[in-house]
Prior knowledge:
Layout: E1 45-51, H1 55-67, E2 71-77, H2 80-88, E3 94-100, H3 111-114, H4 126-136, H5 140-157, E4 161-174, E5 208-213, H6 232-238, E6 244-245, E7 251-252, E8 258-263, E9 269-274, E10 279-284, E11 287-294, H7 297-308, E12 327-330, H8 334-339, H9 348-352, E13 362-363, E14 376-377, E15 379-383, H10 391-395, H11 405-411, E16 449-454, E17 458-463, E18 479-484, H12 488-496, E19 502-503, H13 511-515, E20 520-535, H14 541-544, H15 546-553, H16 558-564, E21 569-570, H17 590-603
Helix pairs in contact: 4-5, 15-17
Amino acid sequence: MNKKLFTLASTATVAAVALAGCVETKSDVKENDGNTTETASAKPSIELLGMASSEQDMNIVRDQLVKNGFDVKLNIQPDYGSFKAQQDAGNFDVSISGWTTVTGNPDYAVRGLFKTGGDYSNTSDETVDKLIDEASTLTGDEAKEKYKELEQALVFDNAYIAPLYISQKFQGIYKAEVNPDTVRLPKSRAQAWETISFNDEGKNDSETLNLHQALASLTSLDPVKGNDGSINTLNTNMYVRLVNLSDTDEVVSEGSLSYDHVAAENNEEYYFVLRDDINFAKVEGEKAVDTGDLVSAEDVVFSLNRAKDKESVPDHRTYSIHENIDTVEIVSDITALESVKTADGKSVLEELSDKLPAAISEIVTDEKAVDNAAGKYQVVKLTTPKPFPQVLNYLAHQSGGIVSEAAVTAVNTFDVASYDPNKDIAYGDQSTVTEGATYANHLAASGPYILVKKNDYEAKFVKNPAYQVGTENEPKINNISVRFIQDNDSALSALRNGEIHVLQSVPETKTDVVEGDSNLQLKTADSNAVSYLLFNTTGRETSKSADLRKAVLYSINQDEFISYYQGKKKPAVSTVSPLVDTGLKLEADAAKVKEFLNAYNESK
C-alpha cells in the first residue's frame, strides 16, 4: 500500500509461458464443453477490470470463470490512472486489485480497505467494522483468533473479495556498478535510498544512481494525500518519520527523527526524544539548499494533527491510518517523564536516555532552544484513546512523514471545503516539479532526498545537505534518478544494460535471467503483497447478491496462479494472510459454484 496500494503495478506483465497443462489459455476453453455449471443462455455476465500489467492474471481469472458458467468481459486499461477512473466510475463487476501492507501490522491490512468510510473502502458492514476494531487492540493468539473471525466474515460469509495469491519480493541489482550489500530489501517499508553506494565510493558524489518505478503520474508529494505505488517510495525518502520499520518489520528509531521512543505501561501514551541534526531542504536552481530550519517538535505536532484530520487537506487519502491518534503535544516538564512508568517498571525519562549523545538536562518547547550536545532536547508525547500499540507501525508509514509547517501553510492558502484543482495549487502538486512548469518548486524535504524536477521520463532527486551529516544515516549518493518504465520486461532489459542500477520488482518468471547474468545479483525476501479480486458493491449485480459473489469466489483456483508463476506465489485468504496465519484456506469448488449460481438465479 510500503502501500501501499499497488493495484498490481508491482505484479507486472510477464511473458513467460505457463507450465504445460497448468493453466488453460483462452483458446483452450470451450464455452459449452459439458463441464460448465449453467447453459449459455443462463450465464451471468461478469465485467473484469484490470491494468495491462495484470493482463495474465486477468486471463487466468477469465478462464476459471468461463469454465464455471460465466460470460466474462475484459476491461483492460493501459495504466493506473485509467484503471482508477474506470473503478471510480463503477465500470466493473470485479477488478484485479492488490495491497501491500507497508507498515508490517495487520490492522493496516484491513482498516483502510474494508472498514466503513476507509480511504479505499467500498465495503459497509457493521460486523466487519466491529471485528477490525476489536482485533486492533489484541496481540498473540487472541489477535489471531479475531483476525480469523474477520477473514471468515470478509471472504467466506460475504465474499467482499476473492483472494488470488501472496507475492514474494525479487530484487535485481546491477552489481557491476552498485554494491549489493548496501541495497536493502525490506519486507514492508519502501526502498531506502540513503544506504546505497557505488562499488567505487568515489563515484557517490559525481555519478547518478538510476532507480525505477512503473508509474510516472504522481498522486501527490504531500505525504498525507497519496498512498499508492506512484509516491510511496518517493515520499518515504523525502520525509523523515518519528520511527521506521526494520527490514523484518520491527518498529525502530534507527534512521528516524527520534533517538529513541517508548510506550507507557498503559499502551496509550507514546514518547519520542528528537534529534537535532536534520534541517528541511528546499530547491534553488535545481540544487538542494539547507534552509536552516530544524525539523522540530513543532513540525511533528503540525504534521500528525493534519495526518489524522480528514478535513486538513482536499482529497485526504491517509486519514484512517492515523485515526487512532488522539493528541500530539510537546512535553514541557521533565518531571512528567520521571513520573510515568513503562511496562518494565522504569520511568519514561530513564528509557529515553539510553541512546543519546548527552544526558537529558532540560526539556525545551522552543526549537530555538534545542541543543542536544548540551543536553537540551525536545520530546513529543502522543496519546491514543485506547491501548493501541499498532499506532507505532502507522507512524512508520510514509504518510507519517514530517512536513514543514512554514512551507505547507505558505502554499495551502485556499479554503479546503471550496478547493478547486483547476485553479488552486496544493502543497505537493506534481505540476510544481514538472519540467516546464510555471510554478516554483515549493517542496521542503525533511528526509534524505528532495525532488528537484520530473518529466515523463524520470524524476530527479538530490541529497538533503542537512540530513544527519556525519552519521551512518547520511545519504551516500548525491544524485538519484527514478526512471519511469511501465513495462517490467523493458525495465529488466534496462537493468541488464546498466541503464538502471536496481530493479525492485523482478518478475517471478524472470528470476533465472537475473541469476544467469554475471553483472547482476538477485535478492529475495518475503512480501506483504496480496493480489485479490475486489467486488463492486454499488449498482451492479455483484453488489446485490452475495450468492453471485460466492460463485465467483469458489471459481478461483489459486494453484493455477502458483503454477503459472513457477511456485513463486503463495496461497492467500485475505490481505492479512502474510501477517497472521489464521488457518483458513480457499479451495476451488465447482459444486459450490453451481449451488450459489442456482441460488442467485432463483432469487432473480
